[in-house]
Design brief:
Number of helices: 6
Distance between the termini: 39 Å
Largest sheet: 4 strands, antiparallel
Shape: globular
Order of helices and strands: HHHEHEEHHE
Radius of gyration: 19 Å
CATH superfamily of the domain at 74-185: Dimeric alpha+beta barrel
Strand order of the largest sheet: 2-3-1-4
Structural class: alpha+beta
Length: 185
């Protein structure tokens, strides 16, 4: 593998685009505790269940962070394919920390499967808190149903993007996905 002549330019670009492991940020648990205290979600002297919830939240935060590091955009510069946003609406029923971790991993595997089939795809899970600015057009708190995450996907058309989105595990769990073209700017 030391000899670059073994790889085609396309293979070299694909290898270079693979996610590299990154060290976890320092003091992750301490930051999570401080954030939870700041939001009033953590008592100053947590009991046994509170510590269990905190540990689960920390594990979920780390898993989400790591999952985001593994699904990266592998789109070559100047790709002719249009891009589409797959907006993943949050579940109406809250998940436990373990269920959410499993769900994030399932979605990550789905995205990696698309990438393995040559699709440019990236994605992120969004945090639960939000601030909505401007006039709300819905009676729901925050101005409408929350978007829990998103993927950016390359496809030849809106119809193809919708077909690929139909294979997303979010739908089998009863979730809702909105597919929108990304207009070039």
């Amino acid at each position: 593998m030391d000899d670059d002549r073994e790889w085609t330019p396309e293979e070299r670009a694909a290898l270079d685009a693979l996610a590299r492991p990154e060290p976890l940020p320092a003091r992750v648990e301490e930051r999570i505790v401080d954030a939870l205290r700041g939001e009033g979600r953590l008592r100053s002297r947590p009991g046994r269940m509170a510590w269990a919830r905190l540990a689960a939240a920390a594990l979920l935060a780390v898993a989400s962070f790591l999952a985001g590091r593994h699904v990266r955009d592998v789109r070559p510069s100047g790709s002719p394919l249009p891009r589409f946003a797959l907006l993943i609406y949050a579940d109406a029923v809250p998940l436990t920390a373990v269920e959410e971790e499993q769900r994030v991993d399932e979605y990550r595997r789905w995205a990696l499967g698309l990438r393995d089939r040559g699709r440019g795809i990236s994605g992120e899970k969004l945090g639960d808190t939000r601030v909505v600015l401007g006039a709300a057009t819905s009676a729901e708190p925050g101005g409408g149903p929350a978007i829990g995450g998103f993927f950016v996907l390359e496809a030849a058309s809106l119809e193809e993007a919708a077909q690929l989105a139909r294979s997303c595990p979010h739908l089998k769990h009863g979730g809702r996905i909105e597919v929108r073209p990304i207009d070039p700017t």
